[in-house]
Amino acid sequence: MDGVREPVDGPHGQGDAGGPHGARGSRGEFAPDVTGRPVWRLLLRGLGVYLPGWEMPAGALRVRDGAADGFGPPAYVNGDAGFGVQVPDRRRGLEPDREIYVRGREDPSFGIVVAGPAAAIGSRVVDARVLMRFARRLTFDELLDTGDADSVPYAVRGARAVENAVFLDRAAGIGLCAEVDPVTRALTCPLYVRLGGPAERTVRAYGAAQPYGAAAQPVRSHS
Predict the structure, then answer these.
(1) Measuring CA to CA, how many Å separate 183 from each of 36, 127, 216?
(2) Residues 6+ apart with CB under 8 A from 183
């Protein structure tokens, strides 16, 4: 396991990337309802680990009616379920890097950042359900000690407690983030990420989400 870490808010405070959240920038309208969430902080943390020195996104550009500046294939928007991506290939045996983070002590929730080829997920279409299932499997594998039977219940609880997942595919230049709504327990992908090439070292984030607890019919979370 690369590490199980307690989360720490960034230098600009909770959910703040130091940018104009909620402001209208030169590239469109930002989505402040996304940037205040744990999944946003997990994204920034993951970018800092796997893409150090790259320009962090100032906010999440809102996608309306499936359109926004620079948004398009392989990503798509699936109504209230949020973003998904189409992956051209799927391969078994790939082992992407991963970092596990824990929030809270009495009733902890887990988050995981995974970095590697999207083909490792094993599906040609990756949406909230597929990504979270993959994230929970990786978390179980990381927490399980095959030489210690007592680790099995802990690994199972940890996998079920994954509520935020970030996947970054640097080679393909894409990223996808999934979360469990703490109020409705709905499972969505509120963030899609485009990674620039080595010459640019830029990250652009897109948001397509409703505030927590909003009336919607997205995919439900299953342990």
Answers:
(1) 15, 21, 12
(2) 212, 213
Range with the poorest average pLDDT among 9-18, 79-88, 179-188, 194-203: 9-18
Backbone angles phi, psi at 178, to 5 degrees: -120, 150
Mutual angle of helices 151-160 and 128-143, in 10-degree steps: 160
Percent of the chain with pLDDT over 90: 46
What pTM was estimated for this model as a whole? 0.79
Q: Is 213 helix (H, G, I), strand (E, B) or coil?
A: coil
Q: What is the C-alpha separation between 180 and 17, in angstroms, rounded?
A: 22
Q: What is the C-alpha to C-alpha distance for residues 178 and 188, in angstroms, rounded to an integer?
A: 6
| Helix locations, the chain, DSSP H | 32-35, 38-50, 128-143, 151-160
